[in-house]
Amino acid sequence: MIKANHNRFYEWFFDAYISYMMRSDFREWVVVGDFNDSGGPILMIGNHFSWWDGFFGRRLNQVVFRRKFHLMMLEEQLAPRMFLSKLGAFSIKKKSRDVLESLKYAVELLHEPGNLVMLFPQGKFQSQHDYPLRFDNGWFRILEQAPENTQLVFSACLTDYFAHRRPALTIYLEQRVAQKFSSSRKVEEAYNVFLKNAIRQQTENQ
Question: How far apart are CA 85 and CA 4, in angstroms?
Answer without folding.
Answer: 5
